[in-house]
């Protein structure tokens, strides 16, 4: 029951926070509230705690903390920008518990 109330509250927050007809559900700018990464232009919906509101944010840059994958569509750490790889925990347990953090590295430089 609590999860349904939290989901409803987040959905209402997202709808209320949208500045106009554009970006209510998809193509959200960085800083706008989101419920899934697919809604964001940056493809990263991030929150800092399980009960915190999630917001669209930029992908992780080189040498920044990152998440390799998420099963839920919301990250604690965003995945790497294009051309970078997230080197770290890639286990299924890490994906389920959302603790699969690593560091973004340039794949081309690490091979040289």
From TrEMBL:
Primary location class: secreted
Places the protein is found: Secreted
Sequence ranges assigned to domain Colipase N-terminal in this UniProt record: 21-60
Residues spanning the signal sequence: 1-17
Classification via InterPro entries: CLPS_chr, Colipase, Colipase_C, Colipase_CS, Colipase_N
One Pfam match: Colipase
GO biological process: digestion; lipid catabolic process; response to bacterium; response to food; retinoid metabolic process
GO molecular function annotation: enzyme activator activity; lipase binding
Domain Colipase C-terminal: 63-106
Keywords: Digestion, Disulfide bond, Lipid degradation, Lipid metabolism, Secreted, Signal
PROSITE patterns: COLIPASE_1, COLIPASE_2
Keyword match Cytoplasm: no
Gene3D superfamilies with a match to the protein in the record: Lipase, subunit A
Record carries keyword Disulfide bond: yes
Complexes and interactors: Forms a 1:1 stoichiometric complex with pancreatic lipase.
Function: Colipase is a cofactor of pancreatic lipase. It allows the lipase to anchor itself to the lipid-water interface. Without colipase the enzyme is washed off by bile salts, which have an inhibitory effect on the lipase.
PANTHER family: COLIPASE
Protein name: Colipase
Species, as recorded: Gorilla gorilla gorilla
Lineage, opening ranks: Eukaryota, Metazoa, Chordata, Craniata, Vertebrata
């Amino acid at each position: 029951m609590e999860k349904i109330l939290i989901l409803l509250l987040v959905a209402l927050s997202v709808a209320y926070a949208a500045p106009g007809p554009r970006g209510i559900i998809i193509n959200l700018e960085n800083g706008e509230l989101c419920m899934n990464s697919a809604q964001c232009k940056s493809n990263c919906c991030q929150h800092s705690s399980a009960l915190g509101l999630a917001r669209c944010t930029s992908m992780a840059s080189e040498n920044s903390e990152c998440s390799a994958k998420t099963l839920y569509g919301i990250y604690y750490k965003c995945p790497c920008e294009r051309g970078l790889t997230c080197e770290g925990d890639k286990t299924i347990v890490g994906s389920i518990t959302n603790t699969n953090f690593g560091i973004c590295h340039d794949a081309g430089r690490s091979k040289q």
